[in-house]
């Protein structure tokens, strides 16, 4: 099962959204993320949140169409994003695409990105999709396909990361990357695909463009 959640961040390109929408089985609007479905005229399963970031017309749409699954209090010990992820996990989704989950609120952006490790640890792939970035947790060796212009690895493990890079402009054997290092920022794939062999550590894999 593949899940799709839409949060209240920047609205992504319609073609990009429809690509991921079509391959998703279960779709949740998170608060103001309802705009994805109403603006692009797409059906979805239901909406959750405290509904503090939603447009008035979208909230009326949810109420008229009985789309509100869970309404939370504004004061709570979890975010709407985390609640949506947990619902999709209960629905047995093994891959989750998140739109609008990165944006101007850096506290939400960073906590959402870090949450990808918790998902990885229980066998869930969480992928953040947007007009300028596609981001996922890097916790194992992986084939890499570049959609945008740059491939970057941000090291999150305290003891750093050891990797082998094959098929990149900057290939490497047994590359040691320190925690917080910028060594693995702005690489490129030479052809269509490349490979990252993860020997030790973990981080974020980011496909980005300006």
Automatic annotation (TrEMBL):
<dbReference type="Pfam" id="PF04263">
    <property type="entry name" value="TPK_catalytic"/>
</dbReference>
<dbReference type="GO" id="GO:0016301">
    <property type="term" value="F:kinase activity"/>
</dbReference>
<dbReference type="GO" id="GO:0004788">
    <property type="term" value="F:thiamine diphosphokinase activity"/>
</dbReference>
<dbReference type="InterPro" id="IPR036371">
    <property type="entry name" value="TPK_B1-bd_sf"/>
</dbReference>
<dbReference type="GO" id="GO:0005524">
    <property type="term" value="F:ATP binding"/>
</dbReference>
<dbReference type="GO" id="GO:0009229">
    <property type="term" value="P:thiamine diphosphate biosynthetic process"/>
</dbReference>
<dbReference type="InterPro" id="IPR006282">
    <property type="entry name" value="Thi_PPkinase"/>
</dbReference>
<dbReference type="Pfam" id="PF04265">
    <property type="entry name" value="TPK_B1_binding"/>
</dbReference>
<keyword id="KW-0808">Transferase</keyword>
<keyword id="KW-0067">ATP-binding</keyword>
<dbReference type="GO" id="GO:0006772">
    <property type="term" value="P:thiamine metabolic process"/>
</dbReference>
<dbReference type="InterPro" id="IPR036759">
    <property type="entry name" value="TPK_catalytic_sf"/>
</dbReference>
<dbReference type="GO" id="GO:0030975">
    <property type="term" value="F:thiamine binding"/>
</dbReference>
<dbReference type="InterPro" id="IPR007371">
    <property type="entry name" value="TPK_catalytic"/>
</dbReference>
<protein>
    <recommendedName>
        <fullName>Thiamine diphosphokinase</fullName>
        <ecNumber>2.7.6.2</ecNumber>
    </recommendedName>
</protein>
<dbReference type="InterPro" id="IPR053149">
    <property type="entry name" value="TPK"/>
</dbReference>
<dbReference type="InterPro" id="IPR007373">
    <property type="entry name" value="Thiamin_PyroPKinase_B1-bd"/>
</dbReference>
<keyword id="KW-0418">Kinase</keyword>
<keyword id="KW-0547">Nucleotide-binding</keyword>
<feature type="domain" description="Thiamin pyrophosphokinase thiamin-binding">
    <location>
        <begin position="139"/>
        <end position="204"/>
    </location>
</feature>
């Amino acid at each position: 099962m593949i899940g799709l959640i839409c949060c209240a961040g920047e609205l992504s390109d319609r073609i990009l959204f429809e690509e991921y929408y079509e391959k998703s089985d279960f779709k949740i609007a998170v608060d103001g993320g309802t705009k994805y479905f109403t603006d692009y005229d797409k059906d979805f399963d239901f909406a959750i949140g405290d509904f503090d970031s939603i447009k008035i017309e979208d909230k009326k749409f949810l109420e008229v169409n009985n789309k509100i699954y869970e309404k939370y209090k504004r004061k709570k010990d979890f975010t709407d994003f985390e609640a949506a992820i947990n619902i999709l996990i209960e629905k047995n989704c093994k891959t989750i695409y998140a739109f609008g989950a990165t944006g101007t609120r850096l506290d939400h952006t960073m906590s959402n990105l870090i949450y990808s490790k918790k998902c990885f640890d229980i066998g869930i792939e969480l992928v953040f999709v947007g007009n300028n970035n596609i981001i996922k947790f890097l916790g194992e060796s992986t084939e890499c396909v570049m959609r945008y212009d740059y491939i970057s690895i941000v090291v999150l493990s305290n003891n750093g990361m050891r990797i082998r890079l094959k098929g990149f402009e900057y290939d490497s054997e047994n590359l040691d990357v320190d925690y917080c290092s910028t060594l693995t920022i702005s690489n490129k794939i030479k052809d269509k695909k490349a490979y990252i062999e993860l020997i030790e550590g973990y981080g974020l894999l980011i496909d980005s463009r300006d």
